[in-house]
From TrEMBL:
It comes from the Bacteria. Signal peptide: none annotated. GO terms for molecular function: lytic endotransglycosylase activity. This is Endolytic murein transglycosylase. The keyword Membrane applies.
Length: 375
């Protein structure tokens, strides 16, 4: 075979191989395009579905609770669990992409027909999507019996019905299981008057149905208390206080002082007394009134002699449990007291508090600002 024939043969062979390679490359490219196309289609559908309302035709309202301290990821999970959004990951990515922030904790009434932007706007403004039928305000310093009266006056729940739930052991135990981080065995102590005393938070509650049940109302209240309490868990741990102890002290502070500064200072007095060796009795009048179960304009000396586990004139340490609910500022004061050396304080009849380090100074304050009551 001549050299020219060998060259032509080799050239033809290479051309054939190149053709095969081109076909293979073309096939690979086509397959890749198909794969990417299918993947893109599914990704598009995945993202599109995640950005769309769960059901544009479903306007049924769902109550959603966003706890205090929730981040975007937490909120996304809560919304998905309540079937308000299709996809938590898409929601979180969308919020991050739009640089949205400032979401507020609280109770929201949302529907499956809402767009993501509508949900985001609601969470940022704290605005619910439907006006409540009515609202009920539970004031700070309210005890269980007062709450029962308020609900009887402003809802379809009767006072006796509510009080039955407050003493129903089976119901209380079911709540302890549901709120195991908040309701501990301390609430079942034999000297505690009502297990949920102090745990039903003071705030205005909105209702979107005419006849809420006791269980629904109590659940709303415990959710609010849990949200506040969990913010101060680290402070409680640092002081070696249980939740029950912190709420008990908060309830006393709530009834002893109104102003933020006085609450911090009075908390310091109580902590100083508890830390004495041996501990001093707290000697706080609101516990006497709670022990007696009666309202008096002034606490007289004869009242101080009333023998009862809640009477902090007769017993050292904290009473068996809270004596009322509380405002968050009272809880904050109970676990973050002002540091000072005061062991005594007395309130004038005008409501101003005077503090002292010694008993002699305290007596002078009493004589000057609160003359002795006559029996």
């Amino acid at each position: 075979m001549s050299p020219s024939n060998d060259y032509n043969s080799i050239k033809q062979e290479r051309a054939k191989e190149a053709g095969i390679v081109r076909k293979v490359v073309l096939i690979v490219i086509l397959v890749a395009l198909i794969v990417f196309g299918i993947a893109g289609y599914f990704i598009y559908n995945y993202v599109s579905e995640g950005l769309s309302p769960v059901d544009p035709e479903d306007d049924e309202l769902v109550e959603v609770e966003i706890p205090m301290g929730s981040n975007v990821g937490d909120i996304a999970e809560i919304l998905e669990e309540n079937d308000i959004i299709n996809n938590a990951t898409i929601f979180q990515t969308y919020v991050t992409f739009k640089n949205e922030s400032g979401f507020q904790a609280g109770e929201y009434t949302l529907s499956r027909s809402l767009e993501l932007d509508e949900i985001i706007e609601s969470l940022k403004t704290g605005r619910i999507m439907l006006e409540p039928l009515f609202s009920v305000t539970i004031p700070e310093g309210s005890n269980i019996e007062r709450i029962a009266e308020i609900l009887d006056n402003e809802t379809s729940i009767e006072e006796d019905e509510f009080m039955e739930y407050m003493t129903d052991e089976e119901y209380i135990e079911s709540l302890m299981e549901e709120y195991s981080g908040l309701l501990t065995e301390d609430i079942l102590h034999e000297d505690v008057r009502y297990p949920l005393e102090g745990y039903l938070y003071a705030i205005t509650y909105d209702f979107h149905e005419e006849d809420p049940s006791v269980e629904e109302v109590v659940d709303k209240m415990l959710q609010q208390t849990q949200n506040r309490v969990y913010e101060y868990i680290d402070d409680m741990d640092a002081r070696g206080m249980s939740i029950h102890e912190a709420l008990t002290l908060a309830s006393i502070i709530e009834l002893e002082a109104v102003g933020e500064d006085d609450r911090l200072k009075i908390s310091g007095v109580f902590h100083n007394r508890l830390n004495e060796d041996p501990p001093m009795a707290l000697q706080t009048d609101p516990t006497v009134l709670y022990a007696m179960g009666e309202h008096h304009q002034r606490v007289l000396y004869e009242h101080l002699e009333y023998e009862h586990p809640y009477n902090t004139y007769q017993n050292t340490g904290l009473p068996p449990g809270p004596i009322s609910n509380f405002h968050e500022s009272a809880l904050r004061a109970s676990v973050n007291p002002e540091y000072h050396e005061y062991l005594y304080f007395v309130a004038s009849y005008e409501g101003e508090n005077y503090f002292a380090e010694t008993y002699e100074e305290h007596q002078q304050n009493i004589e000057e600002h609160r003359p002795r009551d006559e029996e």
